[in-house]
From TrEMBL:
Gene3D superfamilies, alphabetized: 2.60.120.200
Highest taxon, organism lineage: Bacteria
Protein name: Alpha-L-arabinofuranosidase B catalytic domain-containing protein
């Protein structure tokens, strides 16, 4: 029998040197099932501005208010989306920046940035809340190697709700010269690239100029032999990958491919990012794609 879970988020808030306990979002969820409830096998992390797993009871994001540098955690409201009304009340018109994007997978692989000069800006959009880097030095980092997040630099799947921009940029992953597991969403030529291994494989990109500044669901998959790109549930690239696996042991980042691409920070917008350390089955990825498209109205 399905159960109704009472989500109570209790956060410790650091403000002017004092630790306070903030109680909020103490509401029963209206949804009995969430998209990842039966899809945690081989998961690497699960980030979203909505609740994606029923057993997760923590905050979705920690923000910093630029007016006084106060920080606070924010959970999902009754609509499963991070509580925008509460964020707007707290920020009082000030800009806010992401300190931590919390991992809902149960593995605790949060994406963080403690340097206030490198935190991506959060936008409290009531339709699709999201964050975006400035393209100069902003990024979040996960303290886990790409070799763990993938199958030793070979297989892996990333599914996300993102908004493409045009820039010579690395949107997420790792990169040291040609040795990489990363994406460009989009590069300056308005093509979207996926490099799950040594660059540059012949099958690696699609034309994506029509999707600039448009929210979409993107899926990137590396099988034993092929590289696959899907957009909103439609497969647009499936070709052989012949140039070799990613061999670097760098930690994964978002808004940049962690490594030596120091001029290639991104302006891609993010609202959801889920990763598996294998090429997941069609049942898994189609279910996640369909759910995200419907939930976010893509």
């Amino acid at each position: 029998m399905k159960k109704i879970v009472l989500y109570i988020c209790i956060a410790l808030v650091m403000y002017e040197g004092n630790t306070q306990i903030a109680y909020y979002n103490q509401f029963p969820t209206l949804n009995l099932h969430h998209v990842l409830d039966d899809k945690l096998d081989n998961i690497s992390f699960a980030f979203s501005m909505r609740l994606v797993h029923s057993d997760y009871t923590g905050p979705l994001v920690r923000l910093r208010r630029v007016s006084d540098n106060a920080e606070q955690d924010f959970c999902a409201g009754q609509n499963d989306i991070v509580d925008i009304d509460l964020i707007n009340t707290w920020r009082g018109g000030a800009n806010v920046f992401v300190v931590t994007w919390y991992d809902q997978s149960g593995l605790g692989r949060n994406a963080t940035q403690t340097d206030t000069n490198r935190q991506p800006r959060f936008f409290p959009d009531v339709t699709i809340p999201h964050f975006q880097g400035d393209g100069t030095n902003d990024f979040l980092i996960i303290g886990t190697s790409i070799q763990v997040l993938t199958n030793n630099g070979v297989n892996g799947t990333v599914l996300g709700v993102m908004r493409a921009t045009t820039k010579s940029q690395h949107s997420f992953g790792v990169l040291t010269n040609r040795d990489r597991w990363s994406t460009h969403i989009n590069w300056s030529d308005n093509r979207m690239y996926f490099d799950p291994g040594i660059c540059c494989n012949s099958s690696r990109s699609i034309a994506n100029g029509a999707r600039v500044n448009v929210w979409d669901h993107y899926s990137f998959m590396k099988t034993d032999t092929n590289v696959i790109i899907r957009v909103k549930g439609v497969e647009l690239l499936n070709g052989a990958h012949t140039t070799g696996r990613c061999t670097v042991n760098t930690n994964f980042s978002i808004c940049w491919a962690n490594g030596n691409g120091v001029n290639n920070f991104s302006t891609t917008s993010f609202s959801e990012l889920i990763m598996y350390n294998t090429h997941i089955s069609a049942t898994f990825y189609e279910g996640i794609e369909d759910n995200a498209v419907e939930f976010w109205g893509l």
